[in-house]
């Protein structure tokens, strides 16, 4: 039979501007049981528990199986900054949200349709985000008086009626897991650790996720601990079987693959930091230069160091320095030696690296400075996201030290942004700041693996010999004689005969590179370095304005792309006209940006800061740009932005 029903996706606020349609079907499930199977167009699931409960691993595995199934997806990991926060407390809650669909989506969703809460702290920390009518799966074993009192529950929320507006599934996850593993030679504490696999199995049954990938993952991860491997597999299968046989879960759900959402190609699920790492490796190959990373571990950039250290077979060298200053110093030395040099960090590290970035500006050497932004100031919010380093990237150095700034807009786009940053660095002989953030770094989405012939040719020529003739006819090498098109100086590799030249941070004489304190020369060099950055060739900004009649333009940069686009889709679906543009290049701005801004009566700039891009736009183009700002460590929600943009249109 078929019937029209209301989907959890329609009840929640997480849709990216599309209407949900659900059809229920009665089917015969494996094992002979008959359960209702309903088709959804999208689902948002949040796994939440103590930081030791394995929620990130559970979310990662569910995401991997969802990607292999062919759904479009977007994820939002959220975890404490502490390595191990106090068990059972609100600061110790770790969560992983996944939005997957049979169509193109852009965000991890505004609110979960399903919350899996492993303990009282997880329930209390997340229930406020869950819309009425959503499903809540609760591990009842953890709802002891002591555990509830620890987070401020005077009575059990499972019994006092406070959850009556939700579809609550009380499941003794811990007890069921221990019972499933009773034949293994494990202590109760060891057996309890597999309860996240039980939950993963249950949710995998509930949403018809493949299981082969998780089974293979567990076999590989615990290959040297066969008893632990078998226990985790058993818990995973027990969770699946529990969903199949229990009467509490009378319905399972199907979300079809997003067959029309993607161009033809080979896809994989990828996080922003992984995409950025691959982009750096690809750039080094396309430039025919060895890749060198000089770095110091810092959240949320450390994954790039971890990943690149695995790829010595591609000629990658990684150096974990004793501090941020040493990391960039080593990278700049590698650039002088002819490598594609990179240093990775977050906002606090950029502050420490600022003097050496200025030295790279003076030496005019290619250097990629990757800033995975996080909440600040100072140590701030290490595991939360923010966009507040833009002005630091633009101006956070002594003297006039202009640096190009590039920002990716999605996790997969981090690959292309890394390629673009490398192009600018090697072509124009300049340090480049690449501004990602924690939301992009840890989030993931499907990525089409490009063909080699689709990648740009980044090869460059090193200086080979004399490039200037003196008045007396002598041929000499001038290290600061510039390319007339790019204003880039020669890249002279140390040890090349005849190319000996002086380096250092003291001002150079134009052409010769000799030390110069001449006022006129300093003025000329300052203006020339600025002209080089201003002259960088970047694509025009593209405007999405289907009606051509919009009076309001929403302008964004970086990771706000997904929420902004989702909000714009909602408004257009409701009949409003609004234009959208998104910046990848923040220094220099695209040459057509001023003309674009003047076409619209209103310009609204949403940012996860207090208006840094808006400040630059106002100063550069004298446009009365309106800021919409958020600095709570979390990405924008689509509904929130849609409301703000609607007010701008109507105001």
Short description:
With 651 residues, the chain is of the alpha/beta class.
Secondary-structure blueprint of this entry?
Elements (H helix, E strand, L loop, with lengths): L1 E3 L3 H4 L11 E6 L5 E7 L1 E9 L4 H15 L2 E7 L14 E9 L12 E4 L2 H7 L8 E5 L5 H6 L16 E5 L1 H8 L7 H5 L2 H12 L5 H10 L4 H20 L5 E5 L11 E5 H16 L3 E5 L6 H7 L7 E5 L3 H13 L3 E6 L1 H17 L3 E7 L16 H6 L9 E2 L6 H16 L2 E7 H5 L1 E5 L19 E2 L5 E2 L42 H16 L8 E2 L7 E6 L3 H13 L5 E5 L1 E3 L5 H5 L4 E6 L4 H10 L4 E4 L8 H13 L1
Parallel strand pairs: 3-10, 4-7, 7-8, 8-9, 12-13, 12-14, 14-15, 15-17, 16-17, 22-23, 22-25, 25-26
Antiparallel strand pairs: 1-2, 2-3, 4-6, 5-6, 11-18, 16-24, 19-20, 21-23
Q: What structural class do you assign from the helix and strand content? A: alpha/beta
**Strand count, sense and closure of the main sheet?**
7 strands, mixed
Mean pLDDT: 93
Unreliable parts: 1-15, 17-32
Strand order of the largest sheet: 13-12-14-15-17-16-24
| Global shape | globular
């Amino acid at each position: 039979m078929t019937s029209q029903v209301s989907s959890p996706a329609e009840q929640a606020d997480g849709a990216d501007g599309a209407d949900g349609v659900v059809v229920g079907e009665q089917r015969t499930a494996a094992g002979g049981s008959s359960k209702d199977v309903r088709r959804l167009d999208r689902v948002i699931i949040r796994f939440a528990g103590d930081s030791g409960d394995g929620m990130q691993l559970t979310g990662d595995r569910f995401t991997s199986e969802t990607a292999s199934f062919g759904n479009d997806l977007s994820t939002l990991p959220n975890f404490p900054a502490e390595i191990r926060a106090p068990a059972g407390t609100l600061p110790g809650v770790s969560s992983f949200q996944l939005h997957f669909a049979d169509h193109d989506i852009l965000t991890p969703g505004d609110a979960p349709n399903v919350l899996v809460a492993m303990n009282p702290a997880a329930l209390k920390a997340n229930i406020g985000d869950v819309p009425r009518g959503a499903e809540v799966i609760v591990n009842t074993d953890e709802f002891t008086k002591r555990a509830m009192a620890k987070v401020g529950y005077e009575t059990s929320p499972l019994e006092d009626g406070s959850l009556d507006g939700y579809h609550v599934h009380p499941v003794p996850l811990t007890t069921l897991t221990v019972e499933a593993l009773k034949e293994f030679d494990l202590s109760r504490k060891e057996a309890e650790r597999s309860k996240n696999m039980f939950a993963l199995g249950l949710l995998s049954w509930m949403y018809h996720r493949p299981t082969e990938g998780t089974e293979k993952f567990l076999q590989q991860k615990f290959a040297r601990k066969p008893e632990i491997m078998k226990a985790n597999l058993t818990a995973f299968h027990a969770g699946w079987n529990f969903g199949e046989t229990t009467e509490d879960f009378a319905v399972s759900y199907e979300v079809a693959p997003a067959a029309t959402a993607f161009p033809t190609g080979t896809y994989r699920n990828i996080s922003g930091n992984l995409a950025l790492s691959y982009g750096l490796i690809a750039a080094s190959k396309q430039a025919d230069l060895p890749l060198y990373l000089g770095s110091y571990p810092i959240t949320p950039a450390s994954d790039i160091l971890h990943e690149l250290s695995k790829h010595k077979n591609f000629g990658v060298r990684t150096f974990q320095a004793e501090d941020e200053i040493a990391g960039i110093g080593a990278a700049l030395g590698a650039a002088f030696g002819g490598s594609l040099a990179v240093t990775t960090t977050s906002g606090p590290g950029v502050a420490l690296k600022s003097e050496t970035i200025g030295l790279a500006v003076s030496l005019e050497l290619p250097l990629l400075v990757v800033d995975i932004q996080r909440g600040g100031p100072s140590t701030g919010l290490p595991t939360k996201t923010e966009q507040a380093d833009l002005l630091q990237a633009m101006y956070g150095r002594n003297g006039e030290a202009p640096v190009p700034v590039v920002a990716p807009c999605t996790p997969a786009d981090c690959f292309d942004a890394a390629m673009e940053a490398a192009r600018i660095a090697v072509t124009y002989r300049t340090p480049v700041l690449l501004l990602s953030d924690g939301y992009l770094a840890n989030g993931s989405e499907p990525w089409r693996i490009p063909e080699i012939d689709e990648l740009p040719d980044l090869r460059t020529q090193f200086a080979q010999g004399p490039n200037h003739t003196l008045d007396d006819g002598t041929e000499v090498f001038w290290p600061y004689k510039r390319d007339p098109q790019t204003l880039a100086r020669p890249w002279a590799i140390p040890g090349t005969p005849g190319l000996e030249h002086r380096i250092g941070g003291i001002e150079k004489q134009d052409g010769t590179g000799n030390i110069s304190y001449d006022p006129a020369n300093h003025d000329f060099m300052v203006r020339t370095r600025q002209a080089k950055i201003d002259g960088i060739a970047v694509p025009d900004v593209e405007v999405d304005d289907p009606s051509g009649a919009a009076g309001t333009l929403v302008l964004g940069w970086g990771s706000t792309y997904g929420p902004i686009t989702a909000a714009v889709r909602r408004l257009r679906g409701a009949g409003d006209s609004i234009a959208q543009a998104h910046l990848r290049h923040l220094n220099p701005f695209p040459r057509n940006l001023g003309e674009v801004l003047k076409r619209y009566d209103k310009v609204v700039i949403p940012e996860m800061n207090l208006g840094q891009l808006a400040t630059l736009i106002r100063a550069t183009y004298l446009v009365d740009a309106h800021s919409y700002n958020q600095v709570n460590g979390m990405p924008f929600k689509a509904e929130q932005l849609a409301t703000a943009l609607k007010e701008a249109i109507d105001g």
